[in-house]
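dumping this here so i dont lose it
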């Protein structure tokens, strides 16, 4: 990821030597958040895409971003990745400016050219580039990580296939495998389960759970309330921050009413319905019991 300059100051804390028997600063200070934003505003041209967002995401959390089309979900992820410069406010990733810390950012398969003359293995191997460089050797450990990432997504039978030969759902799984191969502490997935069959969807859910269990932070966007209910924290957006917190809190009826101008399928604070967004009628409605991914 390329870093970009920002107009806010990066905080610097002074170290202090603890007296004998007293806890040191390192012991008393809270852990550095995986993502911290304060008063963050992001614009597209002259239009405010997302305004006044203050959230804190802890390491190892699973976080669902949900909201109507154009609510700022992808814009926020772009800013976290260092691809979108804030107009105002503060944003840090593991205590650093965006772009200074490598993150794995998996786009939707529809945003990646399907005609790229690359095999599945070659695409997943690209996830190791931050370790080896574009022309460097990835070594035996790197090869093992690539193979394991391929297997975790059920792609072993497709490794020699060209990306252009695959279905959209298969390409999506390849891109998630590439993200896993990078072994970044922060994994971001842009609507990773949209358009997948139930088995592939369940596999992605398992991957998210496993990554969080390994101590990595996972942020994913979705339009499906059942998927959002699986996360530790939900961030509800509508061009601004509507609510952030537990799924029960963030997806309460009053918050959803503020975020959406459309009706909910199976309305109710415990509904697992897909938001009935006019632009998202193609998203399936799942009927699953919800529980956190941890």
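and the seq i came up w/
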């Amino acid at each position: 990821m390329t870093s970009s300059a920002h107009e806010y100051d990066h905080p610097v804390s002074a170290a202090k030597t603890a007296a004998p028997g007293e806890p040191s600063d390192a012991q008393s200070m809270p852990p550095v958040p995986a993502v911290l934003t304060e008063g963050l505003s992001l614009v597209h041209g002259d239009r405010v895409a997302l305004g006044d967002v203050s959230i804190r995401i802890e390491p190892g959390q699973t976080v669902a971003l949900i909201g109507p089309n154009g609510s700022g979900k992808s814009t926020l992820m772009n800013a976290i990745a260092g691809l979108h410069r804030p107009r105002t406010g503060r944003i840090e990733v593991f205590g650093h400016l965006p772009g200074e810390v490598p993150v794995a950012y998996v786009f939707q398969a529809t945003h990646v050219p399907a005609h790229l003359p690359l095999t599945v293995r070659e695409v997943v191997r690209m996830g190791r580039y931050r370790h080896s460089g574009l022309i460097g050797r990835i070594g035996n450990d790197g090869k093992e990580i690539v193979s394991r990432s391929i297997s975790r997504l059920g792609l072993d039978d497709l490794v020699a296939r060209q990306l252009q030969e695959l279905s959209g759902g298969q390409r999506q799984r390849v891109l998630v495998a590439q993200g896993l191969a990078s072994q970044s502490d922060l994994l971001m997935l842009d609507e990773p389960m949209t358009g997948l069959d139930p088995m592939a969807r369940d596999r992605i859910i398992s991957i998210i759970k496993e990554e969080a269990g390994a101590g990595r932070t996972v942020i994913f966007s979705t339009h499906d309330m059942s998927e959002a209910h699986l996360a530790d924290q939900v961030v509800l957006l509508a061009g601004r921050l509507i609510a952030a917190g537990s799924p029960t809190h963030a997806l309460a009826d009053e918050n959803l009413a503020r975020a959406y101008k459309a009706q909910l399928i199976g309305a109710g604070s415990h509904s697992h319905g897909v938001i009935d967004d006019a632009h998202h009628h193609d998203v399936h409605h799942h009927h699953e019991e919800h529980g956190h991914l941890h």
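The first helix runs from residue 25 to 28.
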